[in-house]
Amino acid sequence: MTQHSRHDTRQHHEHGHGRGHGHGHGHHDEVGLAELLDLDAEVLGSYLDDMAEWVGQHALDQPRSIADIGAGTGRGSLALARQFPAAEVIAIDRSAAMLDRIRVSADEEGVADRMRVVQADLDVGWPAVGAVDVAWAASSLHEVADPDRLLGDLHDALNPGGLLVVVEMDGLPRFLPDDLGRGRPGLELRCHELLNRANWNAHPDWRPHLERAGFEIAEQRSITVDANPVPPNAGRYARAYLSRIHEFLDGQLPAEDLDTLDHLLTDDNPDSLLRRPDLTVRGSRTAWAARRT
Length: 293
Fold this sequence. Notes:
This protein has nine helices and seven strands; from the N terminus they run ααβαβαββαβααβααβ. The chain has helices at residues 27-44, 46-58, 75-83, 96-108, 147-157, 187-197, 206-212, 234-249, 255-265; strands at residues 65-69, 88-93, 115-119, 132-138, 158-169, 215-226, 282-292. It is globular and about 60 Å long. The two termini are 26 Å apart. The model is unreliable at 1-28 (pLDDT under 50).
């Protein structure tokens, strides 16, 4: 799911994937990013299996080859491998560390013989992976410097009748009640307002871009993700996410709000994120299924 994920607090601070377009970060940052991606998939990940099933509804035949574009830690790759047991899944990412994680996970799930990892910077060009039947780009297309060029490459890489699925997160994940019992109510809303002004999670409506690249839209759908009941790791997910955005918000949020955020992130507080019983986990995504005609 990355090319790389902009959970890292660089320039535009997008949601889902962003280490920018290939600019290096330290090992610590990459480890934190991988943890966040895995927690996102664990807590909100039921939608991945639903989306993989949706891919099957639009694929003309049982796919034999699937490319995961900006695969990140490979949660989407694994969901596709589970859904299509006869397919080879090609996980493409710029990060060698992310691809190593995919190898380990594929081995643990017993699909290593069908998982191929390819290290590639998609800003440089589409890698030589051969023709594919399905391409999957989850929160990664907006990370590419020239997505229209990549869409043209993907059109050419797909077999006739092949399917491209693009998934984007529409809003930042939400965790907190309006009144935390500390500080001013509405902390999360104020955080999101600042992040949205900085273009976190910014992506266009991909429909016209897909059509210009020669794709025919088979379906566009919105997905509401509401983890109910709240999973056991919701607190860890909230902590990982809010820790990452804290770096950007420091100096922008009022001092009272920063103090409240620091309090939530201090694990030994009785009402820290890891201990609160009132967390929720909500999000939304839009998906486009587009076919090469």
